[in-house]
Amino acid sequence: MKLKKFGMALSSSALAFSLLTSAVAAQENPTGQAAEAVAQTVTKQDLIAKFKALFPELDYVANGESHMNSGSSYRGDEQKRFHLSLSGVKGGKDYYASVSFIGEELNLESFSFGSPNVADALFPPKISNDEAEEIAKSFMNKMVDKNEFQLEESPYHYYNTKLTEPVRYTFTFKKLKGGVPVADQNAQVTVLGNGDVVEFYYMSSQPKDLTFDKTEGSLDKEKVLKQVKENLAVDLQYEVNWDYRTGERTVGLVYTPRISNVHALTGKWETVKGFGDAPPAKSKVERIVTEPLKPRESDLTPEEAKNLAEQLLKGSEPKGKLTIEGIDERTNYNGAEVISVHYMYETRNGGFGSSLEFDKKTGDVLNYYQMRDYSMTFEEEEKDWSHAISEQEAKEAAIGYLKELMPSKLHLYAKPIMDGQFEERSGIYQFSFPRVEKGITVLGDQLFVAINADGTLSSIYSDYSEFSEWPDPAKAVAEDEALAKYKENLTVELNYMRKGESKHYDLVYTPKFNDNLYGTIDALTGEWTQRFGMRSDVTVSHPWAEKELNYLISANILEVKDGKAFNGDAAVSRGEALRVIMSSLTYFYDTRFGRQEEVKQTFENIDPKHPLYPAIEHAVSIGLINADQATFDVDAPMTREELAVWYVKVLGLEKAAEHTDLYKVDFEDKDQISKEFAGYVAIANAKGLVKAEDNKFNPKQEVSYADLAVSTIRLAHQMADRKGRFFY
User: Fold this and answer.
1) pLDDT averaged over the chain?
2) Is residue 288 within 8 Å of 399, Cβ to Cβ?
3) Taking each helix axis from N to C terminus, what angle separates 640-650 and 705-721, rounded to the nearest 10 degrees?
4) How far is 450 from 430, CA to CA, in rounded Å?
């Protein structure tokens, strides 16, 4: 039986240049015969026995349902991998494990475990970050030679921001070569808040014939640090930030360091092309065009978009029959109307496809990826690119395609300020064209163009963001102040690093700020910017809800700017309470940025520009709040009675709560409870979510921030016990 491999959808991303559109592909499994041959020598029972030896505490997992597949290998790696999947039920709760072994010794390469005890790991965790670190170290010592790895210290503790999911501590261990970390050879271990190790990954096999610089004769660390400090400079730039929870984009003004790695043996500065004598210089900003160009179209129709797409797609000459699968119109995250054309190339053994995106107003191609290049990624043989055009010729070709396909906003962008990169595997030049506002380049807003070795277009992508206001550069703190802060927090660290698919590792000193490889300073405040979704700069105190409040703040669920001025006993508004509940317990995406023809608006006073719009619309969609009123009063204080109603609805018990005659409510203040809410109040009290005190429920009493924090965490535990009751 021939197997087919189906690729997952690859989202458009400014962070991964080569993944410029979503793609779906199918092809024959090239390793089918090898898998059949290897399976004759390694059996499923061999893998189960190995699993039991490594994880004796998970014997019950090894005795569950099992499935094995094997024989896969990577380019340049002849060792075979063997995959074992296990699943079952324990105590009425599902569990699963997925394990990958490699080579004749069946060394562990990856491990993923879905524990039946996940509810035990919800916030608050049973173990601290330090305790989890010791568990991770012990696990590593059991799986690999402890002298070959070093824990990567990080100032950030990673937790899930959803209270319905377990607390997870993730640790990275760097592979060592002669005591020096190897940058791209890391192992990762994840420990749950209850102490269970649930993830491990280490790609143990590497390309053959790797070479490393010798450490003998390397420059003194302090000497290099002095060299870097003396040549360190900063640049003022705009920075586009994206909130993954809502899809909202904001723009800030930052100082970024102009810096690079230093070769540890020669003291030369690293560049895209290698190592040179000169430190990084200030980039010259030169606009692509000085005046706006005429748009390609005006008011593009779906039929016109289809014709334009066919012209582009037929030119790429892939091995397959082109079929237009569909066309849709939607509004993107900037509120711009776009048209997407979905297509497939049908082949004898399946097919592969993707989509193009056009700006409806201007006809600009916003997103195009040549699928021929996608199919080439499956080819194993190395290519000879001696016939490739030069980088300068490729850059000129890229600018030509931009003028042809993206003319309307081209005057906002500059020519590349960094050298282009040539990918040896695919034979593609990649260029990034930064946006320029007020003479300042914009981080996070670029045009990306990839050019094939023969000069044809491989991909083109716009990351344009619309902002009504840009921070005033005149209000930035002095450049010297930012430079001094960078120097004060600068260190250098010795690493082995290699470029692309090179087989040689250079010994380099890598600059770090605040023990982190990345960091920018807010130019308006002079302080370090917050990253990675968790914040530690604001903490509050409270007599009985401090831990809960600070967790919600650190996870950016509760927004507090001044910890000292914050009053946890203050009343929380309906709008803020709803936002906290939605952010804590559900996964949702801002419907303003979804693939919709029209943006939905339920309440007259909550339009798509309202900051609470996404939370409120999601709450309506899952039935948490009713849409029978014209407006929603976000500023009214939240009452205990209404909170009880919301919590019972989240648990899916609203039908039971509606039968008010079934409940006997004996609170002293029962007459103050709204008749239609009596069942909700009774259930919320019985489940310990919103509890009565001294036989009084106080239904009209305002809910405080502390009340909300503690009760929301209780609700998360209730949701974990009610399997499948999660809103997404």
Assistant:
1) 84
2) yes
3) 20
4) 4
Distance of CA 656 to the CA centre of its chain: 39
Spatial CB neighbours of 198, under 8 Å, sequence gap ≥ 6: 112, 113, 114, 115, 168, 190, 191, 192
Whether residue 212 has pLDDT greater than 80? yes
Contacts of residue 504, defined as CB under 8 A and 6 or more positions apart, other chains included, come to 210, 211, 212, 213, 498
Spell out the residues 6+ positions from residue 217 whose beta carbon is closer than 8 angstroms to its own: 265
What confidence tens digit (pLDDT) does each residue in 333-380 have? 677 899 999 988 887 777 788 889 999 999 999 999 887 544 544 455
Query: Which element (helix H / strand E) includes 457?
Result: strand 457-462
Task: Look at 532 and 321; give whichever has higher pLDDT.
Answer: 321
Question: What is the arithmetic mean of pLDDT over 391-395?
Answer: 95
Distance CA 157, CA 161 (A): 12
CB atoms within 10 A of CB 44: 15
Cα 713 to Cα 546: distance, rounded to the nearest angstrom? 13
Return d(Cα 368, Cα 122) in angstroms, integer. 42
Q: What pLDDT is attached to residue 385?
A: 83
CB 391 within 8 A of CB 420: yes
Cis amide bond preceding 56, omega within 30: no
**In angstroms, rounded to a whole number, what is the distance separating the alpha carbons of residues 469 and 157?**
34
pTM, full prediction? 0.77
Q: State how far the Cα of 77 lies from the Cα of 331, in Å rounded to an integer.
A: 45
Distance CA 475, CA 401 (A): 38
Q: How sure is the predictor about 584, in pLDDT bands with cuts at 50, 70 and 90?
A: confident
Residue 148: count other Cβ atoms within 10 Å of its Cβ: 15
**199: amino acid identity, one letter:** E
In this structure, are residues 469 and 313 in contact, taking their beta carbons and an 8 Å threshold?
A: no
Full DSSP string of 515-557: TBS---EETTT-SBPP-TT---S-----TTTHHHHHHHHHTTS
For the stretch 703-718, pLDDT in tens is 999 999 999 999 988 8
3-state secondary structure of 86: strand
- The count of residues in the chain is 728
Residue 571 is classified by DSSP as: B
Q: Which two tokens stand for residue 209?
A: 């014939």
Radius of gyration of the chain (CA): 29
Two structure tokens written together for 699? 């239904």
User: Contacts for 169-176 with beta carbons within 8 Å, 24 or more apart?
Assistant: 169/129, 169/132, 169/133, 169/136, 169/193, 170/199, 171/132, 171/133, 171/136, 173/136, 173/140, 173/149, 174/149, 174/150, 175/148, 175/149, 175/202, 176/147, 176/148, 176/149, 176/150
The half-sphere exposure of 719 on its side-chain side, counting CA atoms within 13 A, is 25
Distance CA(495)–CA(279), nearest Å, equals 19
Q: How far apart, in whole angstroms, are the C-alpha atoms of residue 531 and residue 521?
A: 11
Q: Is the pLDDT reported for residue 37 higher than 80? A: no
Residue 498 per-residue DSSP state: -
**pLDDT digits over 655-705, tens only?**
999 988 888 888 999 999 999 999 999 999 999 999 999 999 999 999 999
